Amino acid sequence: MAQTQVSTTGLVLAVDMNNALDKRVGSNALTVNSVSFFGNPVVNTLTVPLSAGLTYALRWTGRVSSATAGDVAYIRIRPGNALATEFTVAPIFIPTTYTGGFAVDCYCEYTPPLNGTYTFVVTLQLGSGTGPLVVRSSTTGPSTFTCDYVGM
Amino acid sequence: MNDALIARIGSASLLANSATITSTTPTSVLTLSANLISGKTYAIVFTGRPSSSVAGDFAIVRIKTVSATGTDLNHATIFLGSATGAGLELECYAEFTAASTGAVLFVATLERVTGGTGNIILRASSTGPAFLTCDYLGV
Question: How far B132 CA sits from the closest chain A CA (Å)?
Answer without folding.
Answer: 17
